[in-house]
Amino acid sequence: MPIEHGDVGCWVVKCNPVTGTDYFAAIAADDEAQGPVPNLHSDSWCLSPRSGRSRMVSPGDLIALWVTGPKNPGVYEVGWVVENREDPSNSIGVPEPRKVHYMGLRLGADNHVPRGLMQATPGLDRCEQLRAPMMSNPSYLTVDEARVLARLVAARVSEDVVVAARWNTLLT
Q1: Is 4 left (phi over 0), alpha (psi -120 to 50) or beta?
Q2: Which of 26, 38, 67, 100 is least enclosed, having the fewest CB within 10 Å?
Q3: Domain of life of the organism in this record (predicted)?
């Protein structure tokens, strides 16, 4: 069943440090330069060019980064979309891939929201990311699911961090 933009509480982009970007090595290098987490930074991830959802992602939308794989999967960043555009530099065919640019707040290894907690939390236990973990970018959380995730994030980091990531809008 197709979704509409109003169904989306936040977009979820995924990476697998085993088969793709080594997220943990990348943030370790960045942490030396930027200081301890949580910290606000700009980043980007590829979106599937075959998914109609990739064109629905809009500036201002909330976004979460899910790091998958065998070691400590879960939500490691929350933030908001700055730009979503075609990325011809990565094009190997038609259609051209898209890249979402966002400002994200790294939660870090100690503050990330682990998959097990999401599975055990009513309101998140049936979210798309848990039901269809192999789905291409982007997946999404409904508005109600994003509110539950925002409460979990708010319980792990300071209010200032939640505000900086713009996720306080889900806590009203």
Answers
A1: beta
A2: 26
A3: Bacteria
Q: Domains along the chain?
A: 7-170 (3.10.590.10)
Helix (H) or strand (E) holding 147: helix 143-154
Count of CA atoms in the C-beta half-sphere (13 A) of 75: 29
| Rounded-to-10 torsion of CA 85, 127, 18, 58 | 10
Over residues 104-152, the pLDDT tens digits come to 999 988 899 999 999 999 999 999 999 998 888 999 999 999 999 999 9
Task: Write down the pLDDT at residue 70.
Answer: 79
pTM of the model: 0.88
- 52 residue type, one letter: G
